[in-house]
């Protein structure tokens, strides 16, 4: 039986009040309490786990017959519960909110809003319909475009920009939207593993490991391309009949009017934001600067763009940060270190991959990577494990709907179509996660066996 107490943690002395919430959260439940402080620790751990479980159910389920709330409201209830039940203080709860992520989302929403206001989305949809691309061709375009773009634009950003376009395209062409939404979410996650700027957890790994950007790109770009191909093949194999049964897309009427001046300014600012990112500028601040510049140079009131922003999505992210922060503070995430098999070899690599995938879904990949980064340097072949951590924590996002923020963005922005719930996502997500993670881990093992680093 695997001990709940983290390896290397000394046993507490009777009557001792020397407790922490970093790594001792789970095993403190298994020993007798010797005072008020110990009971307080037990209460925090049990409460954090309970609140997290309830929140998980609320945001995973599409709806309940007796409780009609959506994912943002479910996450908000969980965040409030963490504070009211004493796991976090109000000050700690506010500190859990990752403002750079919220800022990045806000900035990209504004940029996307101006592109929509310019009519570019409608123009792209019309051209796609006018050329009568087959459903399979559209699916392939979604897989490879979102995968490539996510390596440089951050997967959350790509989903923010492409989900509205896909929804309009699916409705206009009469296509079944589920395969295309799944293709967008899963491919954005897979493609983001190619660079250290592809997703937030890769950025953390890059800073903690010191791996150069160029080396990481050379190692991980091939596996990203390989797994995008696997994802494309699986999507066609699983949804082939639904793709063929879709009605033929037809363009109706004339081409939609594009506001060329707004479109040109918006594309120019977006290109500038991407270039700044490639040069190492701060993601969130650069996106906000781009949004502010667009507001300044466009001669239209920004109120219309602001009205169309997805404010519930920002609320959802902020509340979810608080819920995950409460679980992390209780020590549940850090206690997972004791679950890793001792030693290296095939068993150690497989165990590391399984724990990484499971924990990234339970606690979100960014908090898990923050904690796991403290373990990796002490593991056998630490450089290999840095790459394994990047790959498994990223591909884990495809397992469940709540495994990745990119998935939740797609689900929330396509909420009006009501086609991608937890079960619908998991049926395909489990398959693609298993296939791509196995292929990716095998690839990394072979690379490091042939070219030791």
Characterise this structure.
- This protein has a domain at 27-96.
- The protein is 69% helix and 0% strand.
- It has helices at 36-60, 71-84, 90-96, 99-117, 120-130, 135-153, 155-173, 177-191, 200-209, 213-244, 260-278, 283-297, 303-307, 311-329, 345-363, 365-376, 382-395, 405-413, 422-450.
- Mean pLDDT is 79; it is low at 1-25 and 245-249.
Structure, briefly:
With 453 residues, this protein is mainly alpha-helical. Helix content is 69%, strand content 0%.
List the topology elements.
Layout: H1 36-60, H2 71-84, H3 90-96, H4 99-117, H5 120-130, H6 135-153, H7 155-173, H8 177-191, H9 200-209, H10 213-244, H11 260-278, H12 283-297, H13 303-307, H14 311-329, H15 345-363, H16 365-376, H17 382-395, H18 405-413, H19 422-450
Q: Report the β-strand fraction as a percent range.
A: under 5%
Instruction: Output the structural class.
Output: mainly alpha
| Count of separate DSSP helical elements | 19
- Biggest pleated sheet: none
From the spread of the alpha carbons, the general shape counts as: globular
Quick tags:
453 residues, mainly alpha, disordered N terminus
């Amino acid at each position: 039986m695997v001990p709940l107490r983290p390896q290397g943690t000394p046993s507490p002395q009777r009557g001792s009040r020397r407790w922490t919430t970093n790594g001792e959260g789970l095993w403190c439940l298994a020993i007798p309490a010797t005072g008020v402080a110990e009971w307080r620790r037990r209460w925090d751990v049990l409460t954090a786990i309970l609140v997290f479980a309830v929140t998980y159910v609320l945001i995973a389920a599409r709806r309940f017959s007796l409780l009609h709330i959506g994912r943002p409201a479910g996450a908000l209830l969980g965040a409030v519960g963490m504070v009211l039940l004493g796991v976090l203080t109000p000050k700690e709860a506010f500190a859990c909110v990752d403002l750079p992520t919220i800022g990045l989302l806000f900035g990209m929403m504004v940029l996307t809003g101006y592109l929509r206001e310019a009519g570019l989305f409608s123009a792209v949809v019309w051209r796609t319909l006018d050329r009568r691309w087959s459903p399979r061709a559209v699916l392939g375009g979604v897989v490879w475009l979102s995968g490539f773009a996510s390596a440089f634009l951050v997967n959350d950003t790509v989903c923010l920009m492409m989900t509205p376009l896909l929804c309009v395209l699916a409705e206009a062409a009469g296509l079944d939207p589920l395969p295309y939404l799944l293709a967008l979410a899963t491919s954005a996650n897979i493609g983001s593993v190619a660079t250290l700027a592809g997703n937030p957890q890769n950025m953390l790994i890059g800073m903690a490991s010191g791996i150069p950007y160029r080396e990481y790109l050379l190692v991980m770009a091939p596996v990203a391309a390989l797994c995008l191909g696997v994802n494309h093949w699986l999507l066609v194999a699983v949804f082939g009949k639904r793709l063929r049964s879709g009605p033929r897309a037809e363009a109706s009427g004339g081409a939609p009017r594009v506001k060329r001046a707004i479109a040109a300014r918006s594309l120019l600012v977006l290109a500038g934001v991407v270039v700044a990112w490639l040069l190492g500028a701060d993601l969130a601040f650069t996106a906000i600067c781009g949004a502010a510049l667009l507001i300044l140079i466009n001669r239209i009131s920004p109120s219309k763009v602001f009205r169309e922003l997805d404010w519930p999505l920002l609320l959802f992210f902020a509340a979810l940060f608080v819920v995950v922060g409460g679980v992390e503070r209780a020590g549940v995430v850090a206690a997972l270190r004791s679950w890793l098999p001792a030693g290296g070899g095939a068993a150690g690599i497989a165990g590391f991959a399984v724990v990484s995938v499971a924990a990234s879904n339970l606690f979100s990949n960014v908090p898990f990577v923050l904690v796991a980064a403290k373990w990796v340097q002490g593991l056998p072949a630490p450089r290999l494990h840095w790459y394994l951590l990047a790959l498994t924590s990223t591909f884990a996002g495809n397992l469940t709907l709540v495994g990745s923020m990119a998935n939740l963005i797609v689900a929330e922005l396509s909420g009006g179509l009501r086609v991608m719930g937890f079960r619908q996502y998991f049926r395909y997500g489990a398959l693609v996660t298993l296939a791509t993670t196995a292929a990716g881990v095998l690839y990394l093992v072979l690379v490091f066996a042939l070219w030791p680093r």
